[in-house]
């Protein structure tokens, strides 16, 4: 098939009703890239023989090598349908074609294709569901532009799925017919739902049911129905979640209204009842997938076929003498063909007879038959018969091929070509940008409104109507890095065959003329053979030099979707950053000039002059203005609206430190990291306090991709990488304290000692964890008690981290000086904040009450959360007074207290908090953050304040010394208090999903057990030999896990790892064997067995902290000396 001229594609961009923006979403390895291959082949981008084998859109070397997609890529495709219509209805059909696809019920859209035939690609007659009876006079051609995005399925790259779905209006959601609904299927369906992206289900790899599982058509039918049920169950949960949420919101609104009216009498309960009915009565039929609705495709991407049942309806309607529309509804489900009456009957009509459902009889049997005669039991004669009965014209040469798979693809490419079926479904089932934006835009602009208000602003109208004449609104969802030599302006023009021939002709003529003139010895003719050749060589050398200069350089292109207006090269636009707030329009906002525009064609770009609303495109000139994502806004319009949505990104958990192999190349590394940070939305690039350059990635595969990118594209230098740094947490539990060993003491080296006198020591009289601390200059003495936070409260703090963070941040932004004041009680300025605080307090009160007498009512005395002011540890004021207000019973402000001498308790408040923040940020075990510890500040006393600290500069410097010492004392007191309890390390855990076959189950278990994982759940997938296992695996043990599992199971299992939570490792890192048996078993220090100590020591070693090591005393005794 010849490739489509660029001009055709560009022309179609302007025809909104004929544009579709779609993405392909699925769990990893369900066949997305393979499927897109067939679609590309239909446009002549790759050869149809190679479709399904090259995985063209996986253009990176590492993608091809590992066989998984790591970056989403986009491509624009051309699709032409020739609809067969009766002469009278041509006009009507044409009118219909130009109208926008109706929104709402998916079923509405099944377009009356009863009398239509389709052709794909550039217009060859399609035999998909017809015997070629149409005549050109009866057809209307419709052309479409399909902007397709292939997304990665691996969980490490879920960020890319959010990007893709943001730009699209429709999605093809693939499900592997054998594996069924997997974790990522769930995730991508949810993402599509959230973004109001309409899905079409593609059940792929049906060939595996035939060749691998050897299902009969009946078994396959039952199995496929189960998959449909699973997917619909997932959709159902989204729907009910939505309805309940809406209901809740409505009730809340109503309540508010009633309150506003001055409290009408309580509701009769009737309203509640009605609203419950409302949940049940909402129509949800349009969200489900059913073959008869045309939104389910059955496919085998690798063998290049796909069908929707209505294709078969078109074939059989005439044969059975039925109306096509009726047959279409019966082709999936409990409908049977009565052999006597030749009529379609329902289940009741069966009357005990064992008939096959129509779906098997008319559809699956045929597919199975082809596989049977070609692949399973190859039989040439039978194959020919089948081909004939299907009315296909296969060349004898193709039929004779020894490669059965090739015969199969040849037959299917004629009978059920994948690209036609899929693209037709896209065109019919998925909305055009104009139709989609009517639904998506109000939701995007007013995510919390049940009924979005009518648009009033120009930009709102422009977006909702997808108006190309309005001002520009576009969303840049990511920055893609492309090699400079790919940019159209740098590309050497590829010549068409005709131009090439023409050029050759000219050169030949010149050569002949030159040769002739040389022969004749003509004078005055300047052309000679050498000159022609030299000219050519020089031109080639110049081209090569230009190409070399560009090689290795990268440019950043914004991957965008335009919702309103038409963007043009040279236009000035506003760029709104992700933190842009309409209330503060001057911040996070800059202006750019559009440098270039592109249509993205996989690894190629086509230069454009303008892009109208409703298209996906690439834009140049944003470098330095957009970091990862942003909104483009017409410069003429005031203000703006931030379109940045919330993505799917998994929390980046794998952290490595990087440095160049050659230290002089640091600048390249820094530049490379900047580029990486821009080009990948899910990576985090940091420079630590120590000056180390660190990247955080969402998993091992993501890390490997980032490293490949840095080494080969962005920095282009050798980079050495530290061992992955895995985060731990430190906590303590209420278990018997161990005899504190020398290592614990060493850990706590920092605690202040002064000539044998302990300045920070355990209180003899106080409860467990109580520490009395005195600063080294003996100015301040305080008592702080450490207590592990009870489970429920800890869980609340962890689950509500985001709320606490927003609240505390808002507050510290508003408050001028809040040191020493309880975070939850100071008067708040804004209404929103007051509400947030009240909610937080209301929820904390019962939890504190449950926690015990000490805790009751203390939620009002929380001085700080830590570490970093927002974490899950608490500093609680138990002094009995609010020490920011009572200012030691004087009303002096801080200026005065400094000058008149004398340190006050208030002056210490900030230092105490800082000490708490430092301690919780790095606990005593291995300086990792603490989790779930509370510190009660019980007493604070200023010893001899007035005499020691005088006024003036001397006084101030003494003050500084004192507050510095309070910080260290508080830090050490918190750490020592922590060690009074039984300390524990907490491990970051991955939740791990593995699909595997029964044969290798044992091996999978062995690998998980060796890596200290725990199996949570194991389930056999009904009807298949597959098991799905859910496990928890410590992140620290996870490196190389995927490879290990793949190797040991010969590729039969591949895990998906997602960070889940921190879990306590129930082992005291300071535990040493005490009893005789333990000593016998484990030796004196138990360092072989104590995993907690092992982890702790690794971290301590990395951080340069003291590690207690056993040094062999008499080395020679342990050596086996060879006797000679
Ligand atoms: N038997 C069979 N194998 C298929 C089919 N489609 C794809 N595959 C195979 O499944 C594997 C994964 O295919 P891909 O197309 O790379 O899958 P993907 O969904 O793009 O994977 P990611 O992008 O990594 O998520 C490849 O080995 C394909 O050959 C199919 O219809 N039948
Ligand atoms: Mg892929």
TrEMBL record:
Coiled coil: none annotated. Residues 102-134 are annotated as: Disordered. The keyword Nucleotide-binding applies. The keyword GTP-binding applies. One of its GO terms (biological process) is cytosolic ribosome assembly. Keywords: GTP-binding, Hydrolase, Nucleotide-binding, Ribosome biogenesis. Residues 125-134 have a biased composition (Polar residues). Residues 17-326 form the Tr-type G domain. CDD domains: aeEF2_snRNP_like_IV (cd01681), eEF2_snRNP_like_C (cd04096), EF2 (cd01885), EF2_II (cd16268), EF2_snRNP_III (cd16261). One of its GO terms (cellular component) is ribonucleoprotein complex. GO terms for molecular function: GTP binding; GTPase activity; ribosome binding. It comes from the Eukaryota. PROSITE patterns: G_TR_2 (PS51722). Gene3D superfamilies: 3.30.230.10, 3.30.70.240, Elongation Factor G (Translational Gtpase), domain 3, P-loop containing nucleotide triphosphate hydrolases, Translation factors, Yeast translation eEF2 (G' domain). InterPro entries: EFG_II, EFG_III/V, EFG_V-like, EFL1, P-loop_NTPase, Ribosomal_Su5_D2-typ_SF, Ribsml_uS5_D2-typ_fold_subgr, Small_GTP-bd. Residues 113-124 have a biased composition (Low complexity). It holds the Pfam family EFG_III. PANTHER family: ELONGATION FACTOR-LIKE GTPASE 1, TRANSLATION ELONGATION FACTOR-RELATED. This is Elongation factor-like 1. It comes from Linnemannia schmuckeri.
